[in-house]
Automatic annotation (TrEMBL):
Name of the gene: FBL23
Pfam families: LRR_At5g56370
Organism (species): Acorus calamus (Sweet flag)
Organism lineage: Eukaryota, Viridiplantae, Streptophyta, Embryophyta, Tracheophyta
Name of protein: F-box/LRR-repeat protein 23
Domain F-box/LRR-repeat protein 15/At3g58940/PEG3-like LRR, residue spans: 49-105
InterPro entries to which the protein is assigned, alphabetical: LRR_dom_sf, LRR_FXL15/At3g58940/PEG3-like
Length: 185
């Protein structure tokens, strides 16, 4: 997949809009896209959202470093954290639209929240509704049995995601690996 994406980027140096959804690729692809398509203004990198997933800011940092001209960015279901979001805001000064729905490692509070609200004209937050999203929005677990989560933590699938985010995804959230199972403490 990496080679095909890089070849496509080489053939379209004037590309302004790119969507890569529900497939895996290396960060080298994003670096190459940034280098080969300097006029890229809109990037959509989408996957299904994860509950209880470890933070991973690698994609966000690559975007910030190699694709600074973005005006619209959609990272639906990404594992970025506040650090990754800070990198994007610092590295992409022209950003006007940001969709980070189902990016549950992001906690928009304090100055980060203010920066996003002041600077981003069209902002979709991790817990915002997904009615207009064209792909499956069913959440997946990251090595965690969701039935156990719903029984053990009183998790209600119909609950408001903002309440869930505040209740289950705070700084005291820890992961313990027991034969590929993760437990909430």
């Amino acid at each position: 997949m990496d080679e095909a994406l890089i070849e496509a980027a080489q053939k379209f140096p004037l590309l302004e809009e790119l969507e890569i959804s529900h497939c895996s690729f290396s960060t080298e692809v994003l670096e190459a896209i940034g280098r080969l398509c300097p006029q890229l203004k809109c990037l959509r990198l989408n996957c299904r959202g994860y509950l209880c997933a470890p933070k991973c800011d690698e994609t966000a940092i690559i975007i910030a470093k190699h694709i600074p001209g973005l005006r619209r960015l959609q990272l639906f279901g990404n594992l970025l954290s506040n650090d990754g979001l800070h990198a994007i805001l610092d590295g992409c000064p022209l950003l006007e639209s940001l969709d980070i729905r189902q990016c549950f490692n992001v906690r928009l509070e304090g100055s980060l929240r203010k920066t996003c609200l002041d600077r981003i004209k069209n902002l979709k937050l991790p817990s915002d509704p997904t009615d207009d999203y064209e792909f499956c929005t069913e959440l997946r677990s990251y090595g965690l049995n969701l039935d156990y989560l719903s029984e053990g933590c009183a998790f209600d699938y119909e609950s408001d995601f903002s309440e869930m985010h505040d209740s289950y995804f705070d700084d005291s959230f820890e992961y313990y690996d027991f034969e590929d199972q993760y437990l909430l403490l």
